[in-house]
Amino acid sequence: MNKIRVRVANWQKDIADLRRIREAVFINEQQVPPELEWDSDDADAVHFLAYEGDYAIGTARLLLDGHIGRVSVLKDWRGLKVGDALMNAAVSEAEKRGLKQQMLSAQVHASAFYERLGFNIVSEEFLEAGIPHVDMVRDS
Fold it and tell me: What are the residue boundaries of the N-acetyltransferase domain, all occurrences included (predicted)?
């Protein structure tokens, strides 16, 4: 296994990898309707791609207001700290941009992962795309 690396992606140039990963995780695995997965925020967001070697295996995005989302790792690479690497990159980029607070809507089953990274639950549970979520916040 190669070392996992994360880089800032370009929405136009890297769209094939970004779409392949998000479609596999959200649309195929979790049955999120495509019209809910793709939105106008993608064009302005800072996107991240995680790689093992030359193969893209995970993605995340940072919106200009500090919201982190679309964190996704292909099934075969889960449990290998790919999500940690993506989140660390997104938080680091947010801080570099002066965004002192990072926010996200976490699937409830993943909330402990985000808590380990310094996020705190700030909402009651709610459904998004039919999946239980909570809002979470991290202050730098």
Answer: 4-140
- Considering the domain boundaries, does residue 8 fall inside one? yes
Name the band, by pLDDT with cuts 50, 70 and 90, for residue 86. very high
Residue 46 lies in a domain: yes
**What pLDDT, on a 0 to 100 scale, did the predictor assign at position 83?**
97
101 beta partners? 139
Structural domains of the chain, count: 1
Could you list the residue range(s) of the whole structural domain that residue 14 is in? 4-99
Please state, in angstroms and rounded to a whole number, the distance separating the CA atoms of residues 9 and 44: 12
We report the CATH number of the domain holding residue 48 as 3.40.630.30
Closest of 53, 50, 125 to residue 90, by C-alpha: 50
Of 76, 78, 79, 86, nearest in space to 117 by CA = 86
30-49 pLDDT, tens per residue?
Answer: 999 999 999 999 999 999 99
**pLDDT for 2 beyond 80:** no
- From the list 93, 86, 140, 133, the residue with the least C-alpha distance to 118 is 140
- The b/e string for 74-83 (b: 16+ C-beta within 10 A; e otherwise) is beebeebebb
